[in-house]
Amino acid sequence: MVRLLEDMAAADHPAEPVLVLANDAEAGGLKKAAGMGVQTAVVDHRPFKGDRPAFEQALQAELDKVRPDILCLAGFMRVLTEGFVAPWEGRMLNIHPSLLPKYKGLHTHARALEAGDAEHGCTVHLVTPALDDGPILGQAKVAIQADDTPDTLASRVLTMEHKLYPAVLRRFAEGDRTPVFL
């Protein structure tokens, strides 16, 4: 999220950040956003004790205050229901640490290593009600090295995430849905 904010700070960027919303008060993007004068909010999921619709209503209430055109998910590790996703469909992006459609869900780096893959990477996609299943807007690849661990691979993939997501968001905000490949 920090890289997206930094990129959007450029004078020629077609998107303007209006809110950084997190479910964890310690999320790094909150401090960066506040320092840039971008509104922040936190809706902690834990008090909702598995009541996803109530949690999502609280999220939506925060979004309603600023009425964004596009939602960009980054590090938001909560599954969203169809009731939340449907009104945002076509306007909500997510970055996922795998070359979708491979390795939806968690532990993607370990799964790529266990499978003996030659390459791994990240994907920016439109969010749909199905987990990690929306149309692909961009992908970036990294070669898997013989001595890779999940942590070393994750570090190289994160570097590519920081390049890919801003590039995709810039094009998306301009109305260009042509996938970006790095």
UniProtKB/TrEMBL annotation:
Catalysed reaction, written as an equation: N(1)-(5-phospho-beta-D-ribosyl)glycinamide + (6R)-10-formyltetrahydrofolate = N(2)-formyl-N(1)-(5-phospho-beta-D-ribosyl)glycinamide + (6S)-5,6,7,8-tetrahydrofolate + H(+)
UniProtKB keywords: Purine biosynthesis, Transferase
InterPro entries: Formyl_transf_N, Formyl_transf_N_sf, GART
Pathway: Purine metabolism; IMP biosynthesis via de novo pathway; N(2)-formyl-N(1)-(5-phospho-D-ribosyl)glycinamide from N(1)-(5-phospho-D-ribosyl)glycinamide (10-formyl THF route): step 1/1
Domain Formyl transferase N-terminal positions: 4-169
E.C. number(s) listed in UniProt: 2.1.2.2
Binding site for (6R)-10-formyltetrahydrofolate: R52, N94
Site (Raises pKa of active site His) location in chain: D132
Gene3D superfamilies: Formyl transferase, N-terminal domain (3.40.50.170)
MF GO annotations: phosphoribosylglycinamide formyltransferase activity
A Pfam family recorded for this sequence: Formyl_trans_N
GO biological process, one term: 'de novo' IMP biosynthetic process
Catalytic residues (positions): H96
GO CC entries: cytosol
Family: Belongs to the GART family.
Task performed by this protein: Catalyzes the transfer of a formyl group from 10-formyltetrahydrofolate to 5-phospho-ribosyl-glycinamide (GAR), producing 5-phospho-ribosyl-N-formylglycinamide (FGAR) and tetrahydrofolate.
Protein known as: Phosphoribosylglycinamide formyltransferase
